[in-house]
Amino acid sequence: MLIIRCPICGDRPELEFRYGGEAHVARPAATEALDDQQVADRLYMRSNPKGLTVERWRHVHGCGRFFNAVRDTVSDFFVTTYKAGEPRPDLDALKKEAVR
Amino acid sequence: MADVALKEPALRRSVFEGLPLASRAAAACALEPLPPATRLSVRGRPGVAEAAAGALGFPLPTDVCRAAEAGGRAALWLGPDEWLVIAPEAEAATLPAALETALAGVPHAVVDISHRNVALAVSGPAAAYVLNHGCPLDLSLSAFPVGMATRTILGKVEVVLWRTGPDSFRLECWRTFAEWVVAFLNEARREFD
Amino acid sequence: MSAPFRLPKGGRIDRQKPVRFTFDGVAYPGFEGDTLASALIASGVHLMGRSFKYHRPRGFLTAGPDEPNALVGVGATQDRYTPNLRAPVVELHDGLVAESQNRWPSLRFDAGAVNDLFSRFLPAGFYYKTFMWPKSFWKTVYEPKIRAMAGLGKAPTAPDADRYTQVYAHVDVLVVGAGPAGLAAALAAAESGRRVMLADEQPEVGGSLLHDVTATIEGRPAAAWVAETLAALKARGVQVLTRTTAFGYYPHNMLGLLERVTDHLANPDPKLPRERLWQVRAGEVVLATGAIERPLVFPENDRPGILLADAARAYANRWAASVGKRVVIATACDSAYRTALDLKAHGIDVAVVADMRPNPDGALVQAARAAGIRIEAGTAVTGTRGRLRVKAAHLGRLDGRGGAHAPEPVACDALLMCGGWTPTVHLFSQSRGKLRFDDALQAYVPSVSVEKERSAGACNGVFDLAAVLADGFAAGESAAKASRTRAPAARAFAVEGSDSTAGGHLGAVPHSRSPSAVKAFVDFQNDVTAKDLKLATREGLRSIEHVKRYTTTGMATDQGKTSNMNALGIVSDAIKSPIPQIGLTTFRAPYTPVTFGSFAGASRGDLFDPVRKTPSHAFAVERGAPFENVGQWKRAWWYPRAGEDQHAAVRREVKAMRSSVGMFDASTLGKIEVVGPDAAKFMELLYTNAWAKLGVGRCRYGVMLREDGFVMDDGVIGRLAADRFHVTTTTGGAPRVLNHMEDYLQTEFPHLDVWLTSVTEQWAVIAVQGPKARDVIAPLVDGIDLSPEAFPHMSVAEGRVCGVPARLFRVSFTGELGFEINVPADYGAAVWQAVFEAGQPYGITPYGTEAMHVARAEKGYIIVGQETDGTATPDDVGLSWAVGKAKPDFVGKRALARPSMAVADRKQLVGLLTEDPATVLEEGAQIVAEPDYHVPARMIGHVTSSYESPTLDRSIALAMVKGGRARIGETIHIPMPDRVIAAKVVEPVFYDHEGARLNG
User: For the structural domain made of C505-585, what CATH number should be given?
Assistant: First the structure.
């Protein structure tokens, strides 16, 4: 069981969390001018990289907050977490840091 | 028959009624149902914590995972904009109104959940050990000090756990899970029977 | 009865406490402190089982958890029977009942042993090669036969009578293994004042020191030092867990520890769990897991009586059990000389030590020589004799060219072997730490850690006792400081009599016999021989991962503890490639087998899953109602009267509700209170409907979509105040809907001042439905004008019912005049009873979920998840009227505008009336257009709901049919195994099309 750092509550056991899909995917708002392909991409296309990925998690059995996380799909370990609404971190910089 | 039913106010029936709470294991870990209470979910924008003092007599705690209490009322921080307020049952009608008044200047929400949750006192030298049969948190006094309160899980059930003393906890869960929680804790403390 | 091989003195057994046990029905004596293995050895029993594939007679190989051969079933009754236990770790208690496995009809005569004679036809990969053809034989012939032959123990047939607990624990330092390194580590960590846990799989701490009768530490015998150290650790508050195996190393320093609490007790206290699963989160971990002695791979190395050398020493020194009267020792490692010396000291005849090394030397060798023990250098075992017990070892001088000279047979009743020591790196490897091959040690040792752990002692490749203690102490210190580097130990331990473990051999032992005629076992448990491994390499397999799977070496329950390194050595030799290039197979949890019971823990019986009961549960139980499981909820299905079956009960309930009044417990419906200044704005975004103009005190049926435009949930929503909505959801959908709402609120619309609270459990909900509903509840209600004008269909009001605060809804899921009384849940049972009594003059009929389903189907009301399957748009299920097309945005709006969401042949909700009104369709049945269809037929839809309608007195069904609305009036067909049923497509409303009854 992993330990996940909730940006609000700190380190807590994985059992208290729920995965929420890829982060920083915009919803296709009806108020935007999107063609059908763009809508389909936003609805269905996900990046699924090998290596660092950005994900949404929710501390559902804790403070209840959704937040974002950078996780390494190779090692399964979390690299960093940050509050929803904060910008996506520079993954290349994080990668270099990890190498070091 | 019907007339009698109409005139008598309906009786409360606790979910703990008939559940096996007494045990010889109580010396190590006692389970006691706590009396009915007024419970309010208080939510709101920044400012709500201070404003609530007007109704509660103290501000809502803003430290992460901490409870505040005074005058028979308590407020548990459950999230950055979420508190569980626990007060005597007799305040069921008055406290929501008082909070609405006190919070009028700040966007907020007060919802009555007095019957949604039920509470058990879990206490004794083995209380933390027994709770750790289902709760994955570090319940040592250094990691989970007196006054800490948080939502977490106990086995297959979500609970709110509040450490009220070195060896005592208040455990809140939704009412229909109480039977399972009691059975689970009984199973966990059976070795002290 | 005296045990003939029990040594007269010594050992850690309690000779004052004799115990009796049976093995294969024969009674044997033993003492407290014995294991099943030591007591049997003391009685001269070595034949313990038959091997997995060839059914060869087998005895003990080891004295510990690495035992591959001596697997037994233990337990007098089926409800307390455990198969596949390793006899060396089964602690003896009075009355223990054990039996051998994998033999028929008896251990001494086993019919399966014909496999041994035909073994030339059972090479590695035999199953893969043989059972490929004909394909149809696999399921019918080969698999059942192989399954009957395969496997070891028998699963018990009765439910497990024991209980098992699971507990989380958090420590600063976890030390795994309480041998010298672990004890020293715990000592160092404890001095720091941190929370320390020390776990060891054995009944007492000490590890290898428990059978070391020569070494001294700090001037005291090893055993005395162990006892003093244990006392010191306990005094410092270290939690010492014995009989506790750390079996799994999981991410972020979580380790699974299995504590065997009662297995060693004759009459365990019933309140104790049999086993306790510790899920330990450790700040830092010290692995002090020791090393495992390697067998030598010589021909016929598997006979009963052939054991590892240090195991024989342990049996003698620790359990006062002699493995034989006259032993031969074969070795390539110094440590076997300690065995020779200790056995000789016990008065056992050591016939000869055959050392593969040409010039063995060193203190131990010299000591053995000085003690008059015959030593043959440059000599190996090239074969053995004896069927049920070894009788002779054939010793051949190695010729230096990969063979051996003609052998000298040496009579013996035990043959002890030592091929060196393999560090136990299982847990380190599980933690994803990287190993490196140490050329000097000829072993894999820990190199780079991933977790916050460090290895110490023999598992770290350190064998000299003084060095082991220092390594352990330093590891304990670094763990206490959470340091990633290891400073030299602050304490040195004065040790005398430490033994060398120099030397060792990897791979097969050379001999000059015909390779095809001999079996030299590498993996004893899976019966893999050196020949099998060589065959695999000849057939082109190079990676050890492939060799492993092809030959099954290392794949048995012992995970190759004694075999992996020899297998690597053989493959390395066969393909002339150094060991590091061949790699190493992955170690996986569990280190030793773990019971299913401990993994299940409390999750069985009543605790398997929470059961959620409604306020009317006791009422329903009293009336003998069966319950329908809806998620974790128990809902009354119907309320049978005497003599009624389901059909009759449901029919009566529907008719009573439609003709007079019925009551239904709807408490399980999800309820969410949406509160805040922006509540209406939020509702506009989350539901397809328009909410801004919904008046306070009014209700509306709402439809919720996912972002992809498909129906996710529905429910009636009441507006209690300008800033307060009472939202209901489906029973099963409640948590999902709240999570969906929170998701959008927190991540897409965080600017909105609105908050969501689940109030599902706050309110008990009693639905009162039928033409007499108002008459029933009117006397109970205070403060709400129930007249049709003041409180029309789709109204909500707050007031009092039965004197308690209530939210009263005028809503209907039946098509009749209906109310839903919401009262605080503690009052639910009393109000339910009051309504029931108030309804008596009208013959009020409690109805269950089945009648509710029938009634709603008669009205064509969908159930999300029954009519919909996650691919239905609102229009597909006839709900386009509920979509606020003028709204600028809502979740799913843009997706609904995609062209594929509006094509004409989408599946649409329709009603079906079978031509024969008595025929009730099967839910889920597929629909075709023509009766004379051909396979593969073109399916045009499926039946979603189907009932016999008591109101219409005929069958009805709802279905999703391609272009269904355009097919109304057509006849479609439902193929069944025995016939094709014809049905007419109709509007999906069967009763009261105008909805007049709602307005009563």
Answer: 1.10.10.1100
Of the CA atoms within 13 Å of residue C8, those in its CB half-sphere come to 4
Stretch C452-480: mean pLDDT? 97
Check CB contact under 8 Å for B133 and C165.
yes
In this complex, do C610 and B179 lie within 8 Å of one another by their Cβ atoms? yes
Strands C971-975 and C980-986, by their bridges, are antiparallel
Could you tell me if A31 lies within 8 Å of chain C, comparing CB atoms? yes
46-85 in B: which are within 8 Å (CB) of A?
64-65, 78-80, 82
Q: Torsions phi, psi of C437, nearest 5?
A: -90, 120
pLDDT score of C190: 95
Task: Give the strands of the sheet with C414-418, arranged side by side.
Answer: C306-308, C414-418, C326-331, C349-355, C375-377
Number of domains comprising chain B: 1
Give domain status of residue B19, yes or no: no
Q: Residue B6 corresponds to which tokens in the numbers above?
A: 């109409």
Instruction: Decide if B66 touches C, using CB distance below 8 A.
Output: no
> What is the mean predicted confidence (pLDDT) over C247-276?
97
Q: Per the CATH hierarchy, to which homologous superfamily does domain C614-668+760-862 belong? A: Probable tRNA modification gtpase trme; domain 1 (3.30.1360.120)
Query: Which of B43, B187, B192 is the closest to C755 by Cβ?
Result: B43
Nearest to C99 by CA among C50, C157, C34: C50
Residues 6 or more apart whose Cβ sits within 8 Å of residue C84: C71, C73, C101, C152, C153, C557, C593
pLDDT of C117 higher than 90 = no
Instruction: Report chain C residues whose CB lies below 8 A from the CB of A65.
Output: 746
In a domain, B20, yes or no: no
- When the pLDDT of each residue in chain C is averaged and rounded to a whole number, the result is 94
pLDDT in tens, C337-384: 999 999 999 999 999 999 999 999 999 999 999 999 999 999 999 999
- Residues in C touching B15 (Cβ below 8 Å): 826
Which residue does chain C place closest to B1, by CA atoms? C837
Question: What CATH fold (topology level) applies to the domain C903-999?
Answer: Elongation Factor Tu (Ef-tu); domain 3 (2.40.30)
Residue A47 CA to residue C953 CA, distance in Å, equals 55
Measure Cα distances from C393 to C63, C329, C352, C379, C416 in Å. 22, 9, 10, 12, 10
**For residues C49 and C725, which has the higher predicted lDDT (pLDDT)?**
C725
Angle between helices C646-659 and C849-858 (to 10 degrees): 60
Instruction: State mean pLDDT over C176-180.
Output: 98
CA–CA distances in Å: residue C892 to residues C286, C687, C705, C896: 54, 9, 6, 6
User: In chain A, how many domains are there?
Assistant: 1
ipTM above 0.95, yes or no: yes
- How far does the CA of residue C969 sit from the closest CA of chain A (Å)? 35
Helix (H, G, I), strand (E, B) or coil at C430: helix
Q: Categorize the per-residue pLDDT at B4 as very low, low, confident or very high, splitting at 50, 70 and 90.
A: very low
Q: Do A28 and C894 touch (CB under 8 A)?
A: yes
- Interface list for chain A against chain B, based on CB atoms closer than 8 Å: 1, 8-10, 12-13, 15-16, 61-65
Contact between chains at A85 and C894 (C-beta distance less than 8 A): no
pLDDT higher than threshold 80 for residue C149:
no
The residue among C146 and C22 whose pLDDT is bigger is C22
Contacts of B80 in chain A (CB under 8 A): 8, 63, 65
pLDDT of residue C676: 98
- Closest chain B CA to residue A1: B136
The reported pLDDT for the residue numbered C484 is 83
Give me the mean pLDDT over the C451-466 stretch: 97
Residue C590's Cβ-count burial label (10 Å; 0-12, 13-18, 19+) is middle
Instruction: List, for residues B56-70, the tens digit of each pLDDT value.
Output: 999 999 999 999 999
Residue of B nearest to C617 (CA): B176
d(CA A70, CA A51): 10
Q: Could you tell me the pTM of the whole model?
A: 0.95
